[in-house]
Design a protein that fits this description.
Elements (H helix, E strand, L loop, with lengths): L8 E3 L5 E4 L5 E3 L15 H24 L7 E10 L6 E10 L7 H13 L1 H6 L4 E6 L1
Parallel strand pairs: 5-6
Antiparallel strand pairs: 1-2, 2-3, 4-5
């Protein structure tokens, strides 16, 4: 792969900071309260959800332009779950990608667009075969 852009960020754990090399991202990190943290910072799952949702929505825009489909009213939500991995006793991720479609994309048209986007999105390609990703049309 010939890199067009490389993002660089440094973090020092779930109870620390995450900082991008250009300084535009500078976040306190914290465990969510449900996992025993104080919730006074973001967490890696939120960052992954935001990145995946943004990438997926942009990828959908590319597919939509190619197929001349209006996606101006579409929103994409990524739900990233952290859980115990039964296989090795460690932790694993699962994702639910929710696309909220307007009337003209309900039914098969929306489902087809969602599937094409999932095949095209770089985050989807990176997760394929590694974590469960469920696609939901709303």
């Amino acid at each position: 792969m010939d890199a067009l852009y490389t993002a660089v960020a440094t973090a020092n754990g779930r109870e620390g900071r995450a900082v991008s090399s250009d300084g535009l991202l500078d976040l306190a990190l914290a465990h969510p309260p449900v996992l025993g943290g104080d919730g006074r910072g973001t967490n890696p799952e939120q960052l992954f959800a935001a990145g995946y949702a943004a990438c997926f929505a942009s990828a959908m825009g590319v597919i939509a332009r190619q197929e001349r489909i209006d996606v101006s009213e579409v929103s994409v939500t990524a739900e990233v779950s952290l859980g115990k991995d039964a296989a090795d006793g460690g932790f694993g991720l699962a994702v639910v990608m929710r696309a909220e479609f307007p009337d003209h994309l309900q039914g098969e048209a929306g489902r087809a667009l969602l599937e094409k986007t999932h095949a095209f999105c770089p985050y989807s390609k990176a997760t394929r075969g590694n974590i469960a990703v469920e696609l939901v049309v709303e």
